[in-house]
Amino acid sequence: MCGKVLLIGAGPGDPGLLTLRALEMLKSADVIVYDRLVSDEIMALCPDVEMIAVGKCPQSHPVPQDRINEILFEQAQLGRRVARLKGGDPMIFGRGSEEAAYLLERGVTVEYAPGITAAQGASCSTGVPLTHRGLATGVQYVTGHRQAGKVLDLDWKRLADPDTTLVVYMGVANIGQIAVGLMTEGLPGSTPVMAVSRATSKEERRMTSTLGTVAQDTRDAGLKPPTLFIIGKVVSLYAEQPVADLLEKAEAHG
User: Fold this and answer.
1) Which residues are catalytic?
2) What pTM was computed for the model?
3) Most buried by CB count within 10 Å: which residue of 104, 175, 180, 220?
4) Domain 4-113 has CATH 3.40.1010.10
């Protein structure tokens, strides 16, 4: 008898942000297929069942996406309840929809538990809103990452809107190109930017900058994935933490 796959969003890291639905589904699982960005605190809530790691990191995909799809299908074919545990929300840059499509085409039932995405987590932990009357009438989410060898072909004109907030996921490697693309389409170099690494976790780091200097500031601060960038006027509402302060903290932690 075919089992089912539970697509579960683990949220940005803080276990207090895991939804009740996600926890209930996790506890009911016979096997858990999990990503690298699921926090240790969330992993500690998992039941004592078989665990299959399929995490990826930049330039390293030990378990290709095609194989992940197959693993989910194979486990479901054994009649198991398969928890597919992903950081953030599985339907926002999490390939959850790709996995669901693969499974549904093969007759496997899929259920969903949304997760708080990193942008929302960073907004709440820093106090920087994603929309704010008079500053931003909307918000756009984009990924700043492309597969190896592919061009970062974002719609710069649409994204360079001074009246919306732009959130860039997975943008550390290409933040310089992103900044240039936005400025070329008219977004001022003085536009405020906040970078948040490991939002909501104990290792969270924050940096404020501007569009014109963010590439150099990111390098100087040594920010690594997972880091997202919030670009727009709303960042002006944050009590600024100068880059120098961040560098001091980085040195203190070795």
Assistant:
1) 35, 56, 170
2) 0.89
3) 175
4) yes
